[in-house]
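Data availability (excerpt). The following record was deposited with the supplementary files.
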Amino acid sequence: MAEPAISLNAVEYTLRHLFQVAFSAVDVPFLAELGDRNVTISLKNVQIYIPLMDDATWETFLAGQLKPMWVDNAAGTLKIPVFQCDSDFDGEICKISDHRIECSCDLISPTFALLSRYEEFNVYALNLVDWDEHDRIPFEGTLADKYDMVEIPLADEYAMLLRRWLCLFFPDRFQAVPRTPRVVPTHDIDLLYRFDTPFQSLKSIFGRDLLINRDLKMVRKSIKDYRAWKQDFYQDPYIQSVLEFAKMEKEAGLEPVFFFKALVEGDEDATYDIRDVRMLQIWKEIKQKGGVVGLHGSYKSAGEEGRLRMERKLLESELGTIQDAVVAGRQHYLRTFFSDDPNSLDLWQQAGITDDYTLGFAERCGFRCGTCHPYPLYDVRNDRVTDIIEHPLIVMDGTLFDYMKLSVTKASTLTQKLKQRCFDVEGDFVILWHNHATTREFEEYYRKVYLPIVSS
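Predicted structure:
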């Protein structure tokens, strides 16, 4: 008997995600039995038959060479790709007979590849892509790129197809309970102070605003901000942005996450000292307004064993009674090492990180993991589910204006489209906006791209 390319553990892991998204439930009991390149799922006395890729087809898919068919999603609003279709595929991806749904394409293997980040674990072995300058997997050459699906939450769209079929054909057994979609604002505090030293202040005002931006109005505003900071430390524009985020997002009923670097003066890449007693007032205001403080793992922590754990303990120590524990994390520069030993999953688990917000592409906004729902990451090396819940990053400010170099209008259009795609599948629109990207040359992006997202 020919076996599917992925294990029964991987199949069950993928099905749990699909059913949880489809029915907004923590656990949907089912039984999965592997057959000859297929799986039969028993769910409330209904059988669902889904073909699975064999090894050769799986390798072709991972190489980006498996031709997809494009079909309507469950809502009929978007074309989505399906793979490993039957030879007589006529555009219908499911057939119903008695208590059985027969699917004509593989909904499981592509979903598993995206959720587990399988291509990143095997990037060297399969010779798919090379790491970029920050040791990240680049967008170009990934499955999302090769199959042109970075703007499609494919796993969630597959879940909605399953929901539609089960609720339509078996309404006495399946009822949709829609999940309330959310905007999840997150903020990486790479720079906490704009005016920390006289040299830094002069460089910021005259070096950037005058010589680079060539904007006298901006220079005058910066001088005004500098004078205010001289009178009151907390009037620093970057600190004010943090406090403004917390206040505004509380008023909007949102739950923001603020990621701070746990570094001290003298550490590589330390732009502020986490031990500075003035941090306490900032953290207190964040917590009073319902925000969460998370760990922004340093550049080296992505690959240096023990470092992330040390940083987390330092941040918890400095927070004291303001926050019981630090369990949320996002790596600086979105750096992960899925193929290394130890890999990122090991480091996150050792550090006590239970909720990660790192997985998004730096160069492209969209769905790196194929989903916008929180979900447990998978340890491909050991073929098992981990306890780390991933909150996929959909949009980052720098991606819009630094990498994609979009105008304000195009950035707004793309951001609103991706938010709607998340809401259509009842997921979370996780957006990252840095506190230093609210003023000066970033002000128009902030006002016209970010503010409409969190205020609507």
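Summary of structural features: The CA atoms of residues 22 and 162 lie 7 Å apart.
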